[in-house]
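pls design
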C-alpha cells in the first residue's frame, strides 16, 4: 500500500498534537474547569508554596490555580528539567508526577487534594512527602472528582513509597 506524503504529514501532525495536548495549556486564561469540583475549607499552617514544573504544562498551571483559589501564595519555579528537581529533592521515582511542590517542610508531588495535605500536617508523620503518582485523571487540575477515591501515597527520604490515604 502506498501512502502519499501529504497524508503521511497530516497523520504525523495529528498524532503529535494528540500526544502533547494533555499537558499544554498555552494561554494566559485560568483553567477553572478542572478545579470546579474541588472545594476545601480546612486549614494548613503554610501560606506560601513553591511549585516546580515544566512551563508548558497546562495541568500544572491549573493545579497552581487550585492552590491560589484556596488562599496559598504559589511561587512558580519553571524548569525544562523537572526530573532533576525531583532527584535533587529526593522524590522517589515511583511517586513522580508532573510537578513537585515544596509545602512547608514537606514535598507534595502531583495533583494532591488539599484534604490529603491537611491530614499530612495534622498527623505530622515522619515522611518526606505525599504524592498522587502519575497523571491522576480525577484530581485537582485534572478534572472534576470521580466516583472512585483518589489514592495518595507517602514517601520517605530513603525512597520507600506506601499507601497513605484515599480522598
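designed seq:
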Amino acid at each position: 500500500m502506498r501512502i502519499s506524503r501529504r497524508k503521511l504529514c497530516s497523520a504525523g501532525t495529528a498524532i503529535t498534537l494528540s500526544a502533547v495536548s494533555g499537558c499544554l495549556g498555552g494561554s494566559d486564561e485560568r483553567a477553572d474547569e478542572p478545579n470546579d469540583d474541588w472545594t476545601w475549607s480546612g486549614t494548613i499552617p503554610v501560606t506560601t508554596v513553591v511549585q516546580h514544573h515544566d512551563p508548558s504544562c497546562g495541568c500544572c498551571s491549573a493545579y497552581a490555580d487550585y492552590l491560589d483559589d484556596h488562599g496559598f501564595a504559589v511561587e512558580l519555579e519553571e524548569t525544562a528539567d523537572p526530573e532533576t528537581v525531583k532527584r535533587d529533592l529526593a522524590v522517589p521515582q515511583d511517586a513522580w508526577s508532573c510537578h513537585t511542590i515544596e509545602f512547608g517542610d514537606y514535598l507534595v508531588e502531583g495533583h494532591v487534594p488539599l484534604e490529603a495535605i491537611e491530614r499530612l500536617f495534622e498527623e505530622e508523620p515522619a515522611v518526606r512527602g505525599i504524592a498522587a503518582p502519575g497523571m491522576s485523571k480525577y484530581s485537582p487540575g485534572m478534572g472534576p472528582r470521580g466516583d472512585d477515591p483518589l489514592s495518595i501515597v507517602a514517601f520517605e527520604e530513603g525512597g520507600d513509597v506506601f499507601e497513605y490515604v484515599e480522598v
